Amino acid sequence: MAVLEDSELESKSQKKKPLSEDEKRRKKITPGSLMKALVRPGAADKAPSDGDQVIYHCTIRTLDGVVVESTRAEFGGNGVPKRQVLGKSKMILGLLEGIPTMFLGEVAVFKMKPELHYGEEGCPVSVSGSFPKDDELHFEIELIDFSKAKVVTEDLGIIKKVKEEGQGWEQPREPYEVKVWISAKSGDGKMIFSHTEGEPFFFTFGKSEIPKGLQMGIGTMSRGEKAVIYVMKDYLSECPIIPSLTGITEIHFEVELLHFIQVRDVLGDGRLIKRRLRDGRGEFPMDCPLKDSLLQVHYKGMLLNEEKTIFYDTRVNNNGQPFEFRSGEGLVPEGLEMCTRLMLPGEIALVTCPPDFAYDKFPRPAEVPEGAHVQWEIELLDYEKQKDWTGFNFREIMDDVEKIKSTGNRLFKEGKYDLAKAKYEHVLREFNHVNPQDDEEGKEFSDTRNLLNLNVAACWLKLGEFRKSIEACNKVLDTNLYHVKALYRRGMAYMDAGDFEATRADFNQMMTADKSSEPTAKAALLKLKKEEQELQRRARQQFKGLFDKKPGEISEVGSWDSGQEEDPNKIREADVGCKDETENEHLLEATAPPQPPATVWSRIWPTGRRLFHDFGLDKCTIL
Predict the structure, then answer these.
(1) What angle do CA 58, 64, 68 make, to 5 degrees?
(2) Which domains does the chain have, with CATH numbers?
(3) What is the bridge-based pairing of β-strands 191-195 and 177-186?
C-alpha cells in the first residue's frame, strides 16, 4: 500500500475544501514572527474560536514603550473596547492567530513583526500614514469577554449575544405588538436608560418607536429570550427612547422579550388586521385550517363605535353552540373566513375588518349599518379536514366528488366564481391519485374530469381570464379533439379574447363533430359576425379623419364608446340551445351574468392587422 507524503495529503485536502482567506493568511506566519508573553492569566479554561464575538482592550506600543494607539482612556483612547467576530471581522494577522490562545480575563502582550500587523502585504485593516507599520510592535490585549454571536447584519453592525434561550419558534415582526424589559449602555459602559421596572416597555414593530438596529435584533428573538444586542451607530436612529445620539458610536441593549401579540395585516394595506389574543395549539401555518375544512368557532361581532355595540354572539344568539361552517363555501363574511384560516385550534383573535370584507357583500344584520367597520372576537375551537380518499374505493371517491362538485355549482350560481373554481380544482388535484380499475370506471372518471375542467373554464370566463379559460378547455380537447362542449366553451373564450379566427374554427369544428350542435354553432357564428361588424364600426370611427389633416396637424382620435351601456341582464344569444347533459347546465353562459367587456386593444388584436390592411393604414406614415 502506497504511503502519501504530507504534501500529497495537503493537496487532497485542499481539493476537498478550499482554504478560506484567513487560513491562507495564517500559512504566511513564520517561526519567531509572533511571540506571546502572559501578563495576567485568565480565569477559565475555554478559549474563543471562529464565530465567537470577542471584546477586548488593545494598547499598541513600540519596543521602547511608546504608546502608538490604545482603546483605553488613560492612554488617550475613547474607553470603548473593540468588538470583533472571529472569522468574520477584518483583523490583523497577529490577533487573528493570538486571541484564540487567550482565556477570559487574560492579559497578554504579543510581539509582532510588521508582516503580522499592519505591515502585512494586502492587510485588510488600514491605518493612517503616520502609523509605524514597518516597525516591530507590542500589542497588549485584555480579553474582557467572548461568546457565541448571532450576526444580524453582514457588515457586523448588529450582533446579538444570547444570555438565556427563549421558547418556541416564532419571532416578532412587523406589525407585531411587543412587550420587553430593556436597558441601554454606551460602548464604554455608561447607562443611557433603563426600563426594567413597573410596566414593561410596549412598542409596535414598524412604527419607528425604537432604533432600527434594536428592532432588527429583537426580530431574531423568541418569547422569553434574554439577550444583549450590540448596535453600531449606522443602525441607530433618534426615537422617543433615545432622543439624542451625540457622542455615541455604539449601544449595548439588554433585552428580555416578555411577550408579543401576533398582528397580521391580512390584505397588506392596513385594513384587515388580526391580533392574536391567545395562542393556539400546533405550529403555524402547518396546523392551520385548509380549504374545505369544517370549522367550529365561537365568535362575537361588534361595531367600532364608542359603546362597542355587540350585534351577534354565538354564545347568546346560537343557543351557546359553536357555529360550524366549511371553509370556501361563503357562509361567513370573507374577512372572518380569511382570518380564521390563519388561526390555530384553541387560538383567540381580535379581527378588525373593513366593510367590503364584512357585511357590504354579505347579508347584513339589522344592527349593522351600511359601510360599517366591524370587529370580531373569534375563538377557533377545532376543525375537521376534508376527507382523505386513502382507503376509499372508487364509488366512495366518486360520491364524495359529487358532493364537492354540487357545492361548487351552488357557489357558481351565487356568482362566487373564485370559490367555485377552488372546489373544482381541489377535486382535479386529488384525481391525480385515483386509479380506475376497469373500462367502466375509467370512462366515468374521464367524463367527470372533463366536466370539472369545463366548469373551471366557465369560472375563468366569468372572471375575465380568457386565456386561462382556453387552457382549461385544451385539457379536455387533448383527450378528445371533438368534444363539443369544450369546443363551444373555448370558442366563447376566444371570442371574448378577440381571436375571431380561432372562434370561427371552433364553432365550425362543433358542427363537424356533432350535427345536433349545428343550431347552437350557427347562433354562435351569428354573434361572432355581429362582434366583428361592431369592431369594424368602432375602428372606422376611431380612425375617421386621421389622415384628413395637413402635415404637422394631429387629428383627435374618436371615442371607442358606442354611447350604449350593456344590459347586465341581457342573455348572450350565442349561448341559447347549448345544453350540458349533466346537472352542471347552469355553468353555460345563458344562466350567468355577462362577462365585463374586454378592453378595446385586447379585442382588436389579432384581427386588427387585417383591419389596418382594409383601411390602407399599413401603407401610411403618421407624421
Answers:
(1) 35
(2) 13-148 (3.10.50.40), 158-261 (3.10.50.40), 264-384 (3.10.50.40), 394-609 (1.25.40.10)
(3) antiparallel
Task: Determine the Cα angle at 82 with ends 74 and 239, to 5°.
Answer: 100
Helical (H) or strand (E) element with 507: helix 500-513
Checking 197-201 for CB contacts under 8 A at 24+ apart, the result is 200/258, 200/259, 201/241
Q: Tell me: pLDDT of 623 over 50.
A: no
Q: What share of the chain is helix, strand, coil (3-state, %, to 5)?
A: 35, 20, 45
pLDDT band with cut points at 50, 70 and 90 for residue 566: very low
Q: How does pLDDT run across 95-112, given as a tens digit for each residue?
A: 999 999 999 999 999 999
pTM: predicted TM-score of the whole model, two decimal places: 0.51
pLDDT at 571: 32
User: What's the CA gap between 524 and 578, in Å, rounded?
Assistant: 10
Q: Which single residue is written with the C-alpha cell 455604539? A: 250
> Residue 225: beta bridge partners?
none
Separation of alpha carbons 414 and 408, rounded Å: 10
3-state DSSP assignment of residue 324: strand
